[in-house]
Amino acid sequence: MRFLTVVGARPQFIKAAPLCEALRHRFDEVFVHTGQHYDDGMSAVFFEQLGLPKPDHHLGVGSGLHGAQTGAMLTRLEPVMRRERPDVVLVYGDTNSTLAGALAAAKLQIPVAHVEAGLRSFNRSMPEEINRVLTDHLSTWLFAPSSHAAQQLAAEGIHAGVHVVGDIMLDAVQQHAERARRFSPYPQAVKLCAGTFYLCTVHRAENTDVAERLQGILDGISRLDQPVVLPLHPRTRKRLAEFGLTPGPNVRVIEPVGYLDMLQLERCATAILTDSGGVQKEAYYLEVPCVTLREQTEWVETVDVRWNVLASTDPDAITAAVERHRQNRPPHPPLYGSGDTAERIVQVFEGVVRDHPGCARAGSAREDTAVPQ
Ligand code: UD1
Ligand code: UDP
To answer: Each residue of 265-324: pLDDT tens digit?
Structure first.
């Protein structure tokens, strides 16, 4: 069985690493980087730290408006898929690279596998929501991190091909947290010790592109009782400059950090304030309280167990959420599997090969599937 994996944005490099490692022991994999993220600190550092293979194809798409960016990816993915003739196209998460990979494959009648299927914010103004809904509806295999996500797919009429396998990011945390603890120079590199600072990340368009919301977040974190480390996403840096906004004196703005440094900063933080999907989960895995700077989250289980509080971008709500965490330490049940998601996904494909021996396009179980001209 031959896989073609499409990645392009920071969280996808992290999600792809554990599965890439497991897949390559048993199958062929062609690795494609769309070029959505391109700064060394947003891309190259993850390839180095996580031992990802050098992309077989780098599409160099870069930044742009949604339509232009997604369209450029489609244009460049199509010939690559036609040439490589994979049995399965593998995509992760909910970025424009995810949708482009899924759509290019579906148009060529190549079955799609989606890792992180079934997540919903029910907020269609988020580009990520459009990307994940469409990708799920184009996919043959839907790897859901929780039974809640699988139920959501069922509610949308998707029953076949759904596998609850846990969260691939837990595999990554388990594989790298100890290395991060031993080798990362943080938080000492910013002259801080464990338990004496908050960590914050902000990059979602709904927050960065609206001056009042970005201002609200800055006001909230500037009122906190400890220093706040803020590794700044390039989108946010650009908007802060455009809007003329400056964080308070307790906020230490640093460049985006590599994965190991990020894990170490997360582990040592008093609490994490974020609008990132991945960081919310990592906070949970590392048993650090989280305040989510949004109105909704796709990772509802972390809120249900009270390790995550939805605070929006209102400064009072942000400080109140941090205070609420100070008052209790709830139980910490496993929510998204046990860190063997990559292995479980590989087993699904091994089952496909067993059930359809000799079938080149094992995924669709249609031996006559031809790539359309
Ligand atoms: C994208 C995803 C988002 C994900 C995030 C992970 C979409 C629609 N959004 O958002 O879901 O959470 O990645 O980090 O796919 N830029 C640089 N250097 C880079 C990359 C980006 O300077 O290496 C700047 C550019 O000005 C660019 C802006 O950041 O216009 C936004 O980048 P883009 O990839 O469009 O979206 P993200 O905000 O990164
Ligand atoms: N991350 C990182 N360095 C940073 C910020 C985030 O390595 O400076 C990692 C973080 O640990 C997590 C992933 O990037 O694994 C989350 O990606 P991001 O927040 O960009 O996107 P989202 O998860 O919201 O799609």
So the answer is: 999 999 999 999 999 999 999 999 999 999 999 999 999 999 999 999 999 999 999 999
- In 3D, which of 65, 13, 19 has the Cα closest to residue 37? 13
- Is there an atom of ligand 2 within 6 Å of 277 CB? yes
Using CA atoms, how far apart are residues 140 and 44, in angstroms rounded to an integer? 31
- Both tokens of 71, joined, read 């369209």
Whether residues 296 and 346 share a domain: the answer is: no
CATH code where residue 9 lies: 3.40.50.2000
Report the alpha-carbon distance of residue 317 to residue 372 in Å, rounded.
53
Q: What is the pLDDT of residues 80-117, one digit of tens each?
A: 999 999 999 999 999 999 999 999 999 999 999 999 99
311 Cα: distance to centroid of ligand 1 (angstroms): 23
CA 159 / ligand 2 centre spacing (Å): 31
Q: Assess contact for 214 and 243: CB atoms under 8 A.
A: yes
